[in-house]
TrEMBL record, chains A, B:
It comes from the Eukaryota. Belongs to the GST superfamily. HSP26 family. Residues 3-83 form the GST N-terminal domain. InterPro entries: Glutathione-S-Trfase_C-like (IPR010987), Glutathione-S-Trfase_C_sf (IPR036282), Glutathione_S-Trfase (IPR040079), Glutathione_S-Trfase_N (IPR004045), GST_C (IPR004046), GST_C_Tau (IPR045074), Omega/Tau-like (IPR045073), Thioredoxin-like_sf (IPR036249). It comes from Camellia sinensis var. sinensis. GO terms for cellular component: cytoplasm. One of its GO terms (molecular function) is glutathione transferase activity. This is Probable glutathione S-transferase.
Amino acid sequence: MAEELKVFRTWSSRFALRIIWALKLKGIEEYETIFEDITNKSPLLLQYNPVHKKVPVLVHNGKPISESLVILEYIDETWKHNPLLPEDPYERATARFWAKFGDEKTCTDEIDKVSDLYIDCHFKVEWKEQEEAIPQVMENLKYIEEQLKGNKFFGGETIGYTDIAFGWTANLLSVFEEVTGMKLLDEEKFPLLSAWMQNFSDVPVIKENWPPRDKLVIKYQATREKYLAAAAAGGPK
Amino acid sequence: MAEELKVFRTWSSRFALRIIWALKLKGIEEYETIFEDITNKSPLLLQYNPVHKKVPVLVHNGKPISESLVILEYIDETWKHNPLLPEDPYERATARFWAKFGDEKTCTDEIDKVSDLYIDCHFKVEWKEQEEAIPQVMENLKYIEEQLKGNKFFGGETIGYTDIAFGWTANLLSVFEEVTGMKLLDEEKFPLLSAWMQNFSDVPVIKENWPPRDKLVIKYQATREKYLAAAAAGGPK
């Protein structure tokens, strides 16, 4: 019986991108992609993820799975070849810890999870929040840099779970830099992380599945405009 | 060689309690417990969990693991008998989804993660936030109630990962009710969840390892006083 496999995503969601990468790394090419418009979500998305109403959702033989890190584990446990997580329990715990760290470090009203600190730094440039955010980002980056000591990827010689979890930074940070004219990731201070970004981006499966850069620049230019307008109006609500 | 196993906890941490329960459910009795004072954390705790500086930390043969849900998975993968997670990948994903839901539903400045909504409801009673928090808690409880249809525990007939993740509610909600005089979990509206709380509390390993109720009441009376004082002073900062 042919398996039914569907991915609900948006063109730009960094969480959904994780699922695409994981499937491709597993060599799974046969799946249907449903592109959602987050301003007008489909009834199917709301049915499959009634709790969070968000992409990504993976539907496997009728069963929906939500939350990108949960989906990654599901993919890894369902298709066991080309493992994303290492075998050793301690290494697995380490991978989960850092993926969770990336996703939960901060929490804002505007944009939830992950990258918030990066995004704050880049886009809240006019507010005092930025002064507080930058040292925090630097501290976080230092922790992440340390994880790469002696390794090409977080997963060792090949990319795995943590690489996929942090993967969006390898693309989006340079978009943020282009849009805001601000450079956070200094190659001299973070040589391993800088090298990782290049190594990660060079993996064919990753490179071939980035959202179009010009569209991302336009998207984040709009974000920038919104923040600038809010700053001109006296800062965030 | 005897294994070295240490748990860094506080007397009341609901996250640390998960680790104690999991070890006991695995039949692991031989471990050292280090009780931390969160107002004066030990150098060892800071060394083992430099990123979050929080309990619980499990140290296994010199290797520290942090983040309670990550530790639960580590325990389950290291000692495979009496599994906490089910075998089926979809059921595992479901368990992880709900545990994550419980831990990440909200995010406030005061108290991070989990229970925040419950705590908001109980303690922010004087502020308008409470009006917003109650319907949200009810919605969350409805989702959780649904997961118990046809099951005694989230894990089926025996307690598992999700039960352990939600387990604190079976104890603390009644403490909150006693302290604030407010009842959120209506047995008629949530019969399955109410039954689950009783069933969960009745499991010997769970019952024997609750923090002392009188101390919890005193702790949350102090929390209540703090919120009342803040309300009298014109609400939260």
